[in-house]
Predict the 3D structure of the following.
Amino acid sequence: MSGPQLIHAQNDWGLKLPSGKGENPLPAATEISAPEELTVLLKQSPGGLSKPMVQIGQKVFKGQKIAAPAKNTFGSFLHAPVSGTVTSIIEVNDSEHIKRAIILANDGLDTVHDDCTPISNPFQRSPQFIRQRIAEGGIVGLGGALFPTAIKLNPAPGIKTLLINGVECEPYINCDNQLLQQYPERVLSGTQLMLHVLGAEEAVIAIEQDMVHALVSMQAATDTLNDPRIRVVSVPDVYPAGGERQLIEIITGSQVPHGGLPADLGVICQNVGTAAAVDQWINAGEPLISRMVTVCGNATTASENCVVRIGTPIAAIISTLQAKDVSRVIIGGSMMGVTAHSVTEPISKASNCIILSNGEHFSPAPEEMPCIRCGDCVPVCPAGINPQLLLESMSTTNTRQSEALGALDCIDCGCCDYVCPSGIDLTARFKIAKQTIWEQHLLAMRAERSQQRFADHERRSLTASNKERATLDAQTAAFHDLHTNSKGALDDMLKRLNSSTPDDAALKDTPRKNDKADD
Amino acid sequence: MSLLSNSRAPHQHSQRNVAQMMRDVLLATFPVSTILCWTYGWGVLLNILFAASCCWLLEAAALKIRGRRLQPWLTDGSAPLTGVLLALALPPLTPWWLIAIASLFAIVFAKHLYGGLGYNLFNPAMAGYAVLLISFPAYMAWWPELSARSNINDTLHYFLYGTAAADALSGATPLDAIQTGLKQMQTLPELLANGTLETAGNAQWVWINLAAIAGGLFLLMRRTITWQIPAGVILGLALSASIAWIGDAAVNPSPWLQLVSGGTMIGVFFIATDPVSSASSPQGKLIYGAGIGALTYVIRTWGAYPDGFAFAVLLMNLAVPLIDRYTRPKLYGQVQ
């Protein structure tokens, strides 16, 4: 059989960043032993929140569910990474927000919970059953987005291709490379399970061109398995070729429609780590309680991949690996990683890489100067934004222009920052712009609702019959309830507005008076 | 253990910076400056040194008056670069006060009144040069005889007092010679045959342009400039010139002559590529460049000035916001 097919990109965005991934085969990953105390964050991703299912003082077993997805969020089931006792449920300050977390005291026994059993003959089971099981295993997208895998595996019909993303394009991150080299059969078996759930025709495992050893081991494992539905391809080593939409563009040659989903092209994209996690849960009975983490940086002697329990504080990794003089910790890669506030911050399902540096690891961007309009940021942007014009548009308070120029399309990859000779922190500014735009949308929606409520009230007091008034009052009360409950929860609000509840529909159908249309 | 947390993604940077870009361009002007000096004598060097210092001092003064910090602006190299580019456009013998006036317009009016580095609408060097072209056309048209070069005393005298023996300044550039010749109903083959173009330094100007191309290639290699603007200008000028030349070769200079006479290549690689006042997207840069090329041809052919590059650049500077608007890349997912 021939080697993996190389797919040439038809685009010219992105950066050639030195990765150094292909030089040597990776040694086996190090197991970091579970610390005495673990901190399991209840909110592990921006869109996901989980609610505790355990009481303080409760005894838990390894793999036992300790939190369930909160309503109307994209949270996941969380499991106890060790056996032990719930000591507290507290607020911790992580790199971005103050978050709630469950603190577990490890009893050191690793007594496994009864739920953690493999599924025998999973391909004889219905796709629905496996999907439900995947949800219960707390499996989420391990590429970084942490979107619940079970939800993603339940799209509209017509999915043709399952795209397994092994394009680890961001410098420093090496955990997918490790999985592909050490456990290619796990990735393959997870892929087969997901194919079963989706009923898709084919699976394409995409790996970056310079991840030579990963390509070799994956191709060998695929040849051995000999499943005609699965093939391995390699893609150019360009950052950010591993972004979901960017990879789809490279593989399929077409872009996901603006505002649409990959499923619109008949594609579902899953990370190789996710595939391996699905395999571990279904075939080995281990829910997502640990993950592969790359630990590197100039404060540690060797860059290595470690298997770490979710909830392990960074400090435990530092002491296990005997890293010295750590003064800066970056969670994630060098392009998109966030700086940790404290070494007490725990590993979450999203933590693919920890860069431990003694402060002088990266040369900082030059002192910020005004934009000299050189345009170097334009061709590198994978989202098709002209970052320079977007920056310019942000000098006014009118966000409409920023939105038209693609503020919401920015994927935070940092390519524009990287090339900017004026050292402007474009990505950070675009994040702020996004936030502002969302807030303004929320305000506008609230204003519209108030106006509608006022109009309805007017109409009631003028013309409505008693019976009609009673109905309308009830509807309005429900409506008002809806509005006040959703304060502060942007996603929640938007979702409610978009889904037409019966109350909403009734109000929309009611003829309105005094309904002033603004602009 | 306390951590440094003041760093935001991306944590890596290409380490390119503005000062380095400006230094690259300054360095790239070296070959063409040398050949110009070789051809026209010490006056060129004097112009370059005086204009660069003038611009630098005016930059300092403008920053002071505007209440800005002097750093990093005084070491970013943009002001001396403006001076050097201005000097490359000037006749080799130019009295000092003209250079001072041009520098004042370039740095204070074209740059700092618009907000300083990054905010200027017009190319500062060309704005300064245009002021001289319009206000002191006679001085701008006097070029020394090629044979009269390299007398330091005479050069200094002219630089200080603006007067010289009359015959020393009867020279012309090839573009002057062509325009004057055509006005006198001579044809291009005649101008070539009777040695008018040769006297005007046609051969020397080819070398000057080649030196400018060498500097331009260096900038392209260093990625300080991109290929779109130079390609646009060359295409725009060559295409316009070709159409006319194919029509009537007797009165229309060949595209080759257009490209290598006057400081065309200095303009192509050093002037038109000024990032601040040019278009930003790759397609926009091509259009911007092509516009400069075409306008240069129009002004050279029908305008009152022998060389129209400066005006072409300034006119296209005006069109930049429009070009940027209509050459915005399509957002991901909007193309199908």
About this structure: The mean pLDDT of chain A is 86. Chain A has three domains: 5-9+24-290, 291-357, 366-519.
